[in-house]
Amino acid sequence: MIKSWSWFNKVSLIVGFAFLYVPIILLVIYSFNESRLVTVWAGFSTKWYGQLFQNEGIMNAAMVTLKVAFLSSTLATIFGTMAGFSMVRFGRFRGRTLFNGMIYAPLVMPEVITGLSLLLMFVAISLDRGLWTITLAHTTFAMCYVAVVIQARLNAFDRSIEEAAMDLGCPPLKTFFVITLPIILPGVLSGWLLSFTLSLDDLVIASFTTGPGATTLPMKIYSMVRFGVTPEINAVSTILIGIIATGVLLASVLHKRRESQRKNDELLASAIP
Amino acid sequence: MGAERLCRVDELSGVAMTSPDPMKKKHKGLPLVSGGLVSMICECPPYRWAASRCYRWGLQGRSLTVMVPYLWLVLLFLAPFLIVVKISFSEIRIAIPPYAPLFEMIDGLYVQLNLHMANYQRLFHDDLYMHAYLSSLRIAVVSTVLTLLVGYPIAYGMARAPKSWRLPLLMLVILPFWTSFLIRVYAWIGILKTEGFLNMFLLWTGVIDEPLVILHTNIAVYIGIVYSYLPFMILPLYSSLEKMDHSLLEAAADLGCPPHKAFWKVTFPLSRPGIIAGCFLVFIPAVGEFVIPDLLGGSSTLMIGKTLWSEFFNNRDWPLASAAAVILLLLLVVPIVWFQRFQSNRSQLGE
Amino acid sequence: MIEANSQEHTVFAPWNEADKEPFVRIENVTKKFGNFVAIDNISLNIFEREFYALLGPSGCGKTTLLRMLAGFEIPTSGRIIIDGEDMSKVPPHKRPVNMMFQSYALFPHMTVEQNIAFGLKQDHLPKAEIADQVERMINLVKLNAFAKRKPEQLSGGQRQRVALARSLAKNPKMLLLDEPLGALDKKLREETQFELMNIQEKLGITFVIVTHDQEEAMTVSSRIAVMDSGTVAQVAPPAEIYEFPNSRKVADFIGDVNIFEGRVADVQADSAQILINASDVPVRTGRSVEAALGETVWVAVRPEKMIVSLNPPKNMTENVLKGEVWDIGYLGKLSVYHVRLQDKRMVTVAMTNRYRETEHTITWEDSVYVSWAPNASVVLMS
């Protein structure tokens, strides 16, 4: 149908992707810079990575972040799947409008408000703040993303497949585990991955809901950035980018193998709230 | 029961039976693909007991599925928000927590309602806050338009790319979305600062003689927002452009419409849903943005997210920050409701 | 339906036997979705070994009725009794019926044999027994070469067979089929219709099929229930539905028909005369009618039971209409004539082309006579 792309399309793609990737590539390259001056190349070195692992503050923050991300993404996946399932399969129930509202509102709510409101509540019920309050906060907003991903997945799924299982003698709960879950599994996994990276990235909500002793990596990076650009931050960033890029690429390669056709919609569904 | 019923099928179907032995071998690998584990769990007595209980409770098993996330969201989303509204009507106090209670027992006899409108009055009368709101909106609108201008050619190029290229390109657009927001904003500091890469490059090529001051200005904020939210713009645009039937353009050409005109008469109007969705996805988070104005903007960059943050953390004026949050949300309600109606109209038309 | 193997050629018609207990009893069932009444007070009996068709246009409630038999919808009021047991409180997974879904609803993550084994596993049968039964079902639907394939690697016709095998594997007392052949192309559909009939006869299971395709319903079923907007218009064997529809709706839905409005002019013991509005010539019917003189009735005549001729038919004072050929459709074995009557109404006549086209004598704008025998028409009261 379309045999060749015009030079205009090629140029806009090249310029566009350069805009998207040059900042990240520069950041990665200069994490290997010998000099402390970030913009002056002084030879290849991995010394900043070495220093990074010596830096107890960063390592602690990384641990906190990973714990929070693991816990909250797992919880968010479970609750989000339940919520998405309820929205698609249970038709109308009492309080459905409020439920839908509570699923969609956190997606468009400015982070400052989400963070502020959670902090004010934790203060109001005088809950000790720390790792656990960040986890609660992250679970809450991530589960809404998961619910939306699951909802999209379930909507694309022929309901009579579940009915067929029940018709053949499989009770409802078992049907969920042996039929529904395996079919929506890619959605569940991408929901988990999404929650994990959202938690890994979050600065604003974590800053509001944290307490003494629990500093996440973004909070640590943020406080370092305020003192200027340093090669250590470049090194941390490079590691984070590396982990996430590998994870996402791996996931998408696996996904592509499973169903190359549906991939297109799935990526769109997982990225657009 | 099973065996007897199975025999009946066999007799009636008149199909010659094969010896069962080869079958047994074949069926060793028969457990459900969904994983032997799941079926093992499902076969085990406690699970079956629980499942039968659940069914006996009928709708209760079902309502459990709704109730858990429902309660979670009520407790951790709705309740906190109501608390914000409540505190926005309170008076600031130097205490822990730093606000006066809304209801106060006076002499243990009656409850006094301390409805305090001063926070809102201050927001509306203090120029700083009004400017912050207006400037947030202005910055959000300008950067949304800029994002559209940058994103449209990219999305268009992707949608017109050969089929085998589209998925990798889509992947490349989404990949930055997964990497840390903070890091992507940070990357621009090194580029935009006075002795940064951009100035170095421009001085080297001789386009400029003196370094440009971009960092800590609104221009840096625009660049930051466009960069950070570009994937949100490209994805809906791409999906609406990709869906477009190419024969429409052929029909336009057949009816005598030159290509550039066909773009404005056919392609652009048909991508309208994508444009609206993309602008919405950029505008809404941009209004409440904190990280970008804080790291890339200067002292003159006023954005409500930043103001709210400093009101809360630096001045510890929680009631005022709450009032600012309530107003910010009210500001966002109009475009959100409009977008919702647009979306539901579209889905109704689609049906 | 006639049982071919039976010595005395007894007719299979359990619904005519007074003492026969129905296998399924649908008693005054109503189903509402909000304010919408999907099923309006339906009562039906389905007998063992019947091939029962629910026929009607989309939205008439036939699928809802089938889903109530399977247990996916619960009647708002009324009862469904299957094999003597009230099904009101029985969930789908505990009912002795299986369903074949319109979309086939094959489990995409399981192979053909895993799909077929699924229902048997739910009964916790011994592994060897499951394997045997799966083998039998795979043989029955001739899918031996495809046992290890996943549904997406099969053609539409093969998927349809897997769905059939899966729903039969548990040897249900009754099989429900929701538009089972809807997704197949015409040729395959016709082949599969006969295969379904063979399987049904072999296994002796009661089949209830939902379809909107009247030819399919007529081919496969022992009885057809014609449904219309939540109610049952007529229940009868295919030939009776076609030859003796009980209302204009049924006559119109099943096949093509010409309907003339008129008034009863004369009632005899074995015939009746009706004055139709379309012509001065009265219509004579081959059966008596139970209507008062002057009452408004409708005369229905199937196109293939009419004759078009250039000359007035001899010795006929009734059942003759005059008109002009408006259009001719040549379909090979048939020619369809649209004849415009004097009052500008159109009549459709289908005649077999017994001679070559060259001998075709009737052509456009010819003045013609349309006639039919008295026993070709049916009088409809509604």
UniProtKB/TrEMBL annotation, chain A:
Membrane topology of the entry: Multi-pass membrane protein
Protein name: Putrescine ABC transporter permease PotI
Entry GO CC: plasma membrane
Subcellular location: Cell membrane
Record-linked InterPro entries: Bact_Polyamine_Transport, MetI-like, MetI-like_sf
Family: Belongs to the binding-protein-dependent transport system permease family. CysTW subfamily.
ABC transmembrane type-1 domain: residues covered: 62-251
Source species: Magnetovibrio blakemorei
From TrEMBL, chain C:
Top EC group: translocase
Catalyzed reactions per annotation: ATP + H2O + polyamine-[polyamine-binding protein]Side 1 = ADP + phosphate + polyamineSide 2 + [polyamine-binding protein]Side 1
Record carries keyword Secreted: no
Keywords: ATP-binding, Cell inner membrane, Cell membrane, Membrane, Nucleotide-binding, Translocase, Transport
Domain of life, source organism: Bacteria
Assembly, per entry: The complex is composed of two ATP-binding proteins (PotA), two transmembrane proteins (PotB and PotC) and a solute-binding protein (PotD).
Pfam families, alphabetized: ABC_tran, TOBE_2
Record's GO cellular component terms: ATP-binding cassette (ABC) transporter complex
Gene3D superfamilies reported in the protein's UniProt record: 2.40.50.100, P-loop containing nucleotide triphosphate hydrolases
Protein source organism: Magnetovibrio blakemorei
Role noted for this protein: Part of the ABC transporter complex PotABCD involved in spermidine/putrescine import. Responsible for energy coupling to the transport system.
A Gene Ontology molecular function term of the record: ATP binding
GO terms (BP aspect): putrescine transport
ABC transporter domain location: 24-254
PROSITE patterns: ABC_TRANSPORTER_1 (PS00211), ABC_TRANSPORTER_2 (PS50893)
Enzyme Commission no: 7.6.2.11
Keyword Translocase set for record: yes
Similarity comment text for this entry: Belongs to the ABC transporter superfamily. Spermidine/putrescine importer (TC 3.A.1.11.1) family.
Xref: InterPro entries: AAA+_ATPase, ABC_SmlMolc_Importer, ABC_transporter-like_ATP-bd, ABC_transporter-like_CS, Mo/tungstate-bd_C_term_dom, P-loop_NTPase, PotA-like, Transp-assoc_OB_typ2
Name used for this protein in its record: Spermidine/putrescine import ATP-binding protein PotA
